[in-house]
Amino acid sequence: MITRYIKIIGRVQGVGFRRWAERTAEKYHISGWVRNLSDGSVEIMMKGETADVDAFLSACQSGPAFASVIGVQPVVIPTSTPPPVHDGVFESVASA
């Protein structure tokens, strides 16, 4: 199992990105969460088998049909504690 924390930049809010992430994470058996950030980006914490996480990361490069992803950046876990990851669950959490 590996964990990745990423920030997705572009036109990713108001286009169904969080719901798309939930469905796509389920497809790849990913646990974690997704949330909107105040700067217009989306943040995702994911945990799963390496191949599944890699496939989910690849899918995040384009996102849902109405999204326009400019970049996917790895994020260092901040000093403030992010929401926990619950095994077997991928959910949308409150915006930061």
Short description, anyone?
The chain has 96 residues and is of the alpha+beta class. The protein is built from 2 helices and 5 strands; from the N terminus they run E-H-E-E-H-E-E. Strands 4-1-3-2-5 form a 5-stranded mixed beta sheet.
Topology, pairings included?
Layout: E1 2-11, H1 17-27, E2 31-36, E3 42-48, H2 50-60, E4 68-74, E5 90-92
Parallel strand pairs: 2-5
Antiparallel strand pairs: 1-3, 1-4, 2-3
Task: Please describe what this structure looks like.
The protein is α+β, with helices and mostly antiparallel strands. Helix content is 23%, strand content 34%. It is built from two helices and five strands, in the order βαββαββ. The chain has a five-stranded mixed beta sheet. The radius of gyration is 12 Å and the shape is globular. The model has no long low-confidence stretch (mean pLDDT 91).
> Could you give the order of strands across the largest sheet?
4-1-3-2-5
Instruction: Output the CATH topology.
Output: Alpha-Beta Plaits
CA radius of gyration is: 12 Å
* Broad CATH class: Alpha Beta
The description of the largest β-sheet is: 5 strands, mixed
Beta-strand residue fraction: 25-35%
Low-pLDDT residue intervals, each spanning 5 or more residues: none
What key attributes describe this structure?
single chain; 96 residues; 5-stranded mixed β-sheet; 2 helices; globular
